[in-house]
Design brief:
Helix content: under 10%
Shape: globular
Radius of gyration: 26 Å
CATH architecture of one domain: Sandwich
Strand content: over 45%
Largest sheet: 8 strands, antiparallel
Mean pLDDT: 81
């Protein structure tokens, strides 16, 4: 009899525990009630870095997101291409103090980290440009991680630059999926190198897929690549691009995360960076396509198995036109193709690409070595920062702003290294147009020194895309598509839920 009652009690214990948990949660929900609309409105009106977004439903105001200041940011910079001439250009657009950024080496897998080479820079009360040597070790096969905290993390941006401070490629955010598009060996890329950087304490495992104009490349050598914590792994992809005119590379992690970069060398040995392209989508916009006396190339990639029907519209200073007429470009699935572009006018333009299936794309403008690339990017949210810009000595810089839908109002602020204030100009971009704004080094810039440009869409502005185009004479030397550099992020609201409780 006792055994029977014991068995019954054991069956009832889980149910009793669940009832107790539900009672506690119910009491807590009664005590801690959501803020009343008036309290939420008060929080909004107080402003500051910690604010609450509202959506009005009937007569009640409902909290959507809470804006909080960015307090941590990390970037990864690949090994430079010019050895001791390389630099890392670093900038924080925060006007606060109390932050710092640590520059730490990411050595080749199997080598030791030289802790003596670590560098720390601190923010000032005003924005400052902070150039840092990128190759302080004997071997240039070493990446760098930049970990920014506090105020320094707000609106931080970093780029690998040359000795003059001209940016060559952005230092990327760690992630799990990246795309790169460029020519293959038959297109002039004799060497293709992939750099994988792990900025975390967890080992990352990477799989690399390659698609060429002949289709998907089957190779087991590019799967299961191990990238150790705080380390760098470089892989040659030249063999996979042998005989190809176009090469598309997808880098995807199965565990952990990495930052990835791809460089291509011409037959003359001059190397260029392939910037990371936007993920495949049915709508893409490529900003900063420069005017050129020779034909530029547009690379299109269809990663899926379905065929693509692609339409291209050029957005210029004069408006829109179809460079290929009313005809669409038909491409097979799992293919990479090159299409020649006619000159798009006397100044920079943008390409709006739409497709029935997801695609990604890039444009190569003829220039030194392989040339200068610009890729599909996202519209600017809050602001964008491009650190390494130069003017004078035969070099000229401009910002290409594109408003594909409604008109945009943009503030451009230029900062020189060590300057306490910047120079500002406003730009109005008509709807459906691209506006090229020349950049000049702000007053106080030392001769030959680089400067930073901060691009800020103003309130009420339509979506705006941007790229910095640097030219020497009529030859493009560097194109950097603008990416958002956030000072705040939105946190979603927390809602009452019992879904976490189960018997």
């Amino acid at each position: 009899m006792r055994r029977e009652w014991s068995a019954r009690l054991r069956r009832f214990v889980p149910a009793v525990i669940v009832l107790l948990i539900l009672t506690v949660i119910g009491v807590a929900a009664a005590v801690v009630k959501p803020a009343a609309p008036s309290a939420v409105s008060s929080a909004v009106s107080s402003g500051g870095a910690d604010t609450v977004g509202l959506q009005r439903t009937g007569t009640a105001a409902v909290a959507l997101t809470r804006q909080v200041a960015v307090s941590n940011a990390i970037r990864a910079c690949p090994p430079g291409l010019t050895g001791s001439q390389d630099r890392i250009a670093l900038f924080s657009s925060s006007t606060g103090s109390g932050g710092a950024a640590g520059l730490n080496p990411l050595p080749q897998a199997g080598t030791k980290i030289n802790t003596a080479r670590q560098t720390t820079v601190t923010t000032a009360d005003t924005p400052s440009l902070l150039p840092v040597p990128a190759t302080a070790v004997v071997s240039k096969q070493q990446g760098w991680s930049i970990a920014a905290t506090g105020a320094m993390a707000q609106g931080v941006e970093a780029e690998v630059a040359d000795s003059s401070g001209l940016a060559a490629v952005r230092c990327g955010d760690p992630g799990s999926d990246f795309w790169f598009v460029g020519p293959g060996q038959q297109g002039g890329a004799s060497q293709i190198q992939l750099s994988l950087m792990n900025v975390d304490a967890l080992t990352a495992t990477v799989n690399v897929g390659v698609i060429t104009d002949a289709g998907a490349v089957q190779s087991g050598n590019n799967t299961g690549i191990t990238v150790p914590p705080y380390g760098l792994v470089t892989e040659s992809l030249s063999a996979q691009a042998g005989g190809a005119s176009v090469t598309a590379i997808e880098v995807r992690t199965s565990t952990g995360r990495v930052a990835a970069d791809v460089s291509e060398s011409s037959t003359h040995g001059t190397a260029s960076w392939l910037p990371s392209a936007a993920p495949p989508s049915t709508r893409l916009l490529i900003p900063g396509v420069p005017p050129s006396g020779t034909t530029a190339s547009m690379f299109l990639v269809v990663p899926g198995s379905s065929d693509a029907r692609v339409n291209v519209v050029a957005i210029t200073t004069q408006g829109r036109y179809q460079p290929f007429g009313s005809q669409s470009i038909d491409l097979p699935g799992q293919s990479a193709s090159a299409v020649q572009l006619t000159p798009l006018g006397g100044s920079a333009a943008a390409l709006l690409i739409t497709s029935n299936v997801p695609v990604t794309a890039a444009v190569l403008a003829p220039g030194n070595g392989i040339g200068a690339f610009t890729v599909a990017s996202a519209p600017i949210a809050e602001q964008a920062v491009i650190v390494g810009n130069v003017a004078g000595g035969g070099m000229s810089a401009s910002i290409a702003l594109t408003a594909p839908a409604t008109a945009a109002q943009v503030r451009l602020t230029e900062f020189a290294a060590g300057a306490t204030t910047g120079s500002t100009q406003l730009a109005a971009v008509p709807a459906g147009r691209t506006l090229a704004v020349p950049l000049k080094a702000p007053p106080g810039t030392k001769r030959g020194a680089s400067f930073t440009i901060v691009i800020t869409p103003l309130a009420g502005s339509g979506p705006v895309y941007a790229a910095r185009v640097e030219t020497q004479g009529n030859t493009p030397t560097s194109i950097i598509a603008a990416a958002s550099a956030l000072t705040t992020i939105g946190l979603p609201p927390v809602r009452d839920s019992y879904s976490a409780v189960s018997p």
